[in-house]
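Translate sequence into structure tokens.
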Amino acid sequence: MLKIKNLHASVEGEKILKGINLEINPGEVHAIMGPNGSGKSTLASVIAGNEDFEVTKGDILFEKANISELSPEERAHKGIFLSFQYPVEIPGVSVTNFIKTSINQVRKAQGQKDMPANEMLKKIREKSALLEMDRKFLSRSLNEGFSGGEKKRNEIFQMAMLEPKLAILDETDSGLDIDALRIVADGVNRLKTKDNATLVITHYQRLLDYVIPDVVHVLMDGKIVKTGGKELAKELEEKGYDWLKEERAEMTS
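Result follows.
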């Protein structure tokens, strides 16, 4: 579904990604871990098409088509979803109106008519129940005055409603207590199908106790330096990242 080849990217002239290679197939959950400043959030932003970052080399293929030149909107229309680490507040736009507009814009781009109101309402009820969301929440302005947990739960609600092919969760676990983490993770797990894929970006093993990854990648200094199964995340939790730095130093010396 996603194939990244030798991806290099920079922001304001500073090189951040230095040759990323990554493949994600339908039905898979991949996790990217790494220390602060390693390029994890940059990778998420570049896949989603954030124009603050300049791709200087390499290709991003989504369902075999090169999307490197597409705008964020065009990528979203193709089925790429990014859950932000720090979701923005949009006063005056309710959660419900935002999600209706988003869904109908995607449908329009795919040559479909707007979703009928009764179908939309049914889907909103279904997905908000899945994430144990209070119905009053849906009439509030998007993220305005929301707690950290409410913002993250709202991001997963948007994902549930939009049903993307590829969902990128950028540190969705940051700032969540254990109950909110469980609800968010449960929502992610229930939305998983053989036809979609998830890329989870996290510092911590604890999210991966709930959202079990098929593959774990370690990103350091703009490169993927190690790939393994879910046990790799546990090893990182126990030992930190220093042993990988030492391992890399030995390989390059």
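Note: The CA atoms of residues 128 and 157 lie 7 Å apart.
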